[in-house]
Amino acid sequence: MTSLTLWWIAFIAIFIVVYTIDLYVADHRKGTISVKTSLRWTGVWISIALLFGLTIFFFFPQNPDAVKNTAQEMGLKFIAGYLTEYSLSVDNLFVFIMIFSMMGISAQNQPKLLKIGIMISIVLRILFILVGMGLVARFHWIIYIFGVILVWTAYKMTFTDEDDQVDPKSNLLYKIASKLFPIYEDEHHPKFFVKENGRRYITVIFLALLVIGSTDILFAFDSIPAIIGVIQEGEQGVLSLSEENFLAISSNVFAVMGLISLFFALKGIMGMFRFLKHGVSFILLFIGLKMLLGFFHPVEEFFKAYSWVSLAVIILTLVISIVLSSVIKEKPGKKAEIEK
Description:
It contains 14 helices and 2 strands. It has one domain. A hairpin with a 2-residue loop joins strand 1 and strand 2 (199-202). It is mainly alpha-helical. 75% of the residues lie in helices and 2% in strands. Helix 4 runs parallel beside helix 8 (204-231). The longest helix has 34 residues, at 70-103. It has a two-stranded antiparallel ribbon with strand order 1-2. The N and C termini lie far apart (54 Å).
């Protein structure tokens, strides 16, 4: 059994424990979970992820053929990838909140949809990572296409209103399902299908599940180029493809763990993240330009020699976006509109 296999086992074990606890807390809550409790649990999950990254940094076995410290490279890339994907995941939660609000999903049904949405997201991300990393390993020029995708995504996030992106009725799956099946009008019904008078109906939460599932595909399509841009080092990197796959998958999965707890807090602390979308846009732009400019050998060598630069840019951007959100007060009218 190789050392990387042991790290895979440790990661899977941590994921099962964390996800089970997070589901238990959500399912056995008495009333609505308070913002304070949600933030406390969120802090625990973030600490576990960062501790896992630090453990990699200090204890991952050194590759004797590598010219640089393998453990330090992997630790820095894991944390950078985790912070990038976590910030994207938080931004995605805002979209989920908007979908629930626009479709009138009751508070009792939201955790159920959220849990399914997160599992769909995990499966899609793993599949996209394996395909994306494999393609880049075989055809390195694809990384420039990913760079263009990230630059375009950054532009779209900055200049497109979120309301235009999440209108459920404009969703293709929503349109198809609503035409094929009659809709059961009770918005609070907890099941996906209802049979009444010999006729089968689809419910509102089933339509919401279709919207969330298709949205997960778009989220995964945006996030995978980002993680590849953080993890990949060029055609002859320090890390092997198996090590890069481990970092990409583990940092992505860690990024969606604990989102159930965070979901219950977001409505109460949305003001802290008002500028997160702009910060995430800048991070995606930075990663995309880094991938595109990797065509120039000096740029590629710079980021190989100074892996910490990417992590520093990501952390600084997230800190600035949160500080600006706290300092610059939101207009009362806009706040009321969001809460509604």
